[in-house]
Amino acid sequence: MESHYHNQKPHINTMQHLKSLFTILFLITLSPLTVTFAGKIPAILVFGDSSVDAGNNNYIPTVARSNFEPYGRDFVGGKPTGRFCNGKIATDFMSEALGLKPIIPAYLDPSYNISDFATGVTFASAATGYDNATSDVLSVLPLWKQLEYYKEYQTKLKAYQGKDKATDTINDSLYLISIGTNDFLENYFAFPGRSSQYSVGLYQDFLAGIAKDFVKKLHELGARKISLGGLPPMGCMPLERATNLGTGGECVGRYNDIAVQFNGKLEKLVEQLNKELPGSNVVFSNPYEPFMRIIKNPSSFGFEVVGAACCATGMFEMGYGCQRNNPFTCTNADKYVFWDSFHPTQKTNHIMANALINSTFTHFL
């Protein structure tokens, strides 16, 4: 299968529309890490969906999981952890680049404790969104519940570090938010509820309002360095291409247009938040154009296949559809932009992390 280029994997007729949620993270280039952050950021605290979930969904009753092979086959020890990837996700690479630790653990993972979480933890939950109705689809952690876990984390941190040091950690940590794609692809366009209540534009406003409230609550709890991630060209994910019938596997233009529109609203929101929140440094991380450059010219980034994913046929499968012994699964994921039909490979995640460190993170020096 390695010789197939772009989306030329075997076609299958079954259309599975159970998609996991995924916001492709941040800015993407191949630039090297050039900024030294050691000691400036004591921890990375993460909120969001499957793009940044390191395995929280393993510990809640949901089908939105990936704690089985072939997920994690390129992770340390070939271990499936619950990350929707063949290896590390972007936040793991960010943590390593900042000199903190090689991976960011999931808050609900009982094999870790507050001594591990003190330098970084993710509260994220695959298949969630800004909208509570999105998290209800697959019974995952809504954003408000992630915030409740963060409050619990603060209590544990103060007991572990002492009040004064914990307060410094809370103020100086980097807060990453990566969420939103599922609100559109797994909720608004998948079920009649929200689409009967809101036009696309009004739904974007509704989600932006939730994003604003969430950032303000983080600020009230002591957060000062906050990165709010935008949407990727979500119409170019392999599943969206595969279900874009009659186009030969082209991207879904309407979904990409919506991503651009929503990103514009989030960018304006960040400008507003920086004016309203004293002492805050909120940055908008927009992945759209950099990721589109990879999609349009994958070979310049070292990729051979962009229209299909590595796992199984590369068109529809993710989660439980991505089975260990599927004969179509690729042997070298580094040739693919996507690992499954919604989520990027470890190599793509590494590229994203490098770019964010060298661009957005400079605002937090």
Automatic annotation (TrEMBL):
Q: Which Pfam families match?
A: Lipase_GDSL (PF00657)
Q: Which InterPro entries match?
A: GDSL, GDSL_lipolytic_enzyme, SGNH_hydro_sf, SGNH_plant_lipase-like
Question: What domain of life?
Answer: Eukaryota
Which family does this protein fall into? Answer: Belongs to the 'GDSL' lipolytic enzyme family.
Protein name (database record): GDSL esterase/lipase At2g04570
